[in-house]
Q: What sequence folds into this?
């Protein structure tokens, strides 16, 4: 266990740029009235939208961009901003099926190459044979009955159910708000999209029994110095993955999540999470990225079902496709 | 299932190894809207529904025969719209807009607004972020 903790600390530090590490050492966060480190506020993940989950293989163990690589990201961001601020729409622009590009949240150029910091190459570890079987089964089912034969073919996110813990905090193109609130013995974390709230006891009580499983699991927190450490178990397996919005290969019910929240400055929390799911991945892996305080950020009510025609349009769209295919004379 | 879309950014040369491809959240637009049914609607705004994350712009469109049909066009998530400079006054009732997009596959009068402009070609709203706000690359 000690070895594991040591490994986690190393992994987390490896993901922090040198400056942030220095700041983390020298920064002492304010305390709440009852003496806990104060993590309260709105900490959206928006800035990190452009940092991919996995690192390009040719970068090896290097997770910090060179000046030249960073300059490319900055140039790209400037071009995007210029295109966003054009007063007139380009009449010759090809109209794609997606909403206008300038309607997306943008994020900021970051020197971090990948969200995954451990394994050191920033790549997801190998999956287990059981996980590969599950993946093949899901793909076969999709081939057999199409992508929208029933609402159950849609993700738990599309169905407005849950994105899971990791899917709720990984940066996506909108609704990246995270709010932390504290009271003596409890921390609450609200996520803007699907508006789930986790209430995390800090009282050292044990996890609930093995028979109880849920989308967001059963979380217990404790302080290690100024770091809030949250261990989550009792997660429902075979549903959400660890990808954006809960996408990707579904994790199993054996997943044990260890999250760490460390304030490294007045406006930054370094967040990390280690996925330990021996039924799905052959070794644990860790993501780490900063959350930046934004007092101007407002969590808007997230009305997932209201005005949402996606399920109707996807299912009726698939039926329309089938009818059109059936009406075509056989060749 | 979720169609990962690469955001087209003009002629920007995205370096593939450094660029992320954020999935357009919430649904695969290609599953809902028909790429074979492109639309160009010119109409008058009757209502703007500010629902997070599914904003809808309602408009009345007069056909060549003078018959008016009502359409609804999906917009961006209200928090993006607000954070990027869209206000309640950006799209008032009675405003004439042109929508280029795609109709729902099921044939209903719902569309995805892939390009929404005012009649004179001005963009529906201007983003709040300007190039000057971005950090400079390390020298």
A:
């Amino acid at each position: 266990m000690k070895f594991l903790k040591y490994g986690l600390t190393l992994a987390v530090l490896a993901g922090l740029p040198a400056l942030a590490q220095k700041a983390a050492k020298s920064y002492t966060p304010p305390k709440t009235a009852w003496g806990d480190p104060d993590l309260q506020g709105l900490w959206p993940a928006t800035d990190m939208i452009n940092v991919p989950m996995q690192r390009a293989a040719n970068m090896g163990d290097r997770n910090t961009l060179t000046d030249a690589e960073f300059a490319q990201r900055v140039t790209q961001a400037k071009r995007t901003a210029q295109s966003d601020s054009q007063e007139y729409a380009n009449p010759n622009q090809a109209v794609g099926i997606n909403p206008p590009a300038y309607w997306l949240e943008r994020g900021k150029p970051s020197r971090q190459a990948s969200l995954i910091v451990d394994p050191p190459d920033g790549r997801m570890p190998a999956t287990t044979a059981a996980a590969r079987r599950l993946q093949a089964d899901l793909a076969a089912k999709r081939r057999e009955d199409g992508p929208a034969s029933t609402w159950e073919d849609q993700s738990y996110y599309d169905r407005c159910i849950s994105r899971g813990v990791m899917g709720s905090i990984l940066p996506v193109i909108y609704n990246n708000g995270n709010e932390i609130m504290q009271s003596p013995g409890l921390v609450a974390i609200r996520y803007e999209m699907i508006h789930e709230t986790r209430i995390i006891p800090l009282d050292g009580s044990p996890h609930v029994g093995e028979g109880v499983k849920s989308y967001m699991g059963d979380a217990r927190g404790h302080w290690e110095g100024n770091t809030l450490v949250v261990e989550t178990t009792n997660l429902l397996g075979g549903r959400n993955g660890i990808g954006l919005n809960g996408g990707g290969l579904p994790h199993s019910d054996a997943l044990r999540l260890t999250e760490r929240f460390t304030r490294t400055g007045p406006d930054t929390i370094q967040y990390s999470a280690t996925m330990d799911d021996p039924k799905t991945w052959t070794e644990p892996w860790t993501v780490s990225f900063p959350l930046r305080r934004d007092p101007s950020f407002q969590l808007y009510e997230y009305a997932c079902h209201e005005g949402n025609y996606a399920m109707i349009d996807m299912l009726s769209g698939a039926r329309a496709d089938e009818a059109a295919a059936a009406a075509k004379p056989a060749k | 299932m979720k169609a990962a879309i690469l955001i087209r950014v003009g002629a920007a040369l995205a370096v593939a190894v450094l660029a992320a491809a954020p999935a357009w959240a919430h649904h695969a637009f290609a599953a809902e809207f028909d790429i074979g049914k492109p639309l160009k609607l010119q109409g008058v705004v009757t209502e703007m529904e500010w629902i997070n994350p599914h904003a809808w712009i309602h408009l009345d469109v007069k056909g060549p025969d003078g018959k008016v049909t009502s359409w609804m066009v999906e917009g961006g998530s209200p928090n993006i719209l607000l954070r990027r400079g869209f206000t309640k006054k950006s799209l008032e009732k009675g405003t004439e807009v042109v929508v280029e997009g795609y109709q729902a596959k099921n044939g209903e009068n719902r569309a995805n607004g892939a390009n929404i402009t005012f009649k004179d070609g001005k963009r529906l709203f201007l983003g709040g972020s300007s190039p000057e706000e971005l950090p400079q690359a390390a020298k």
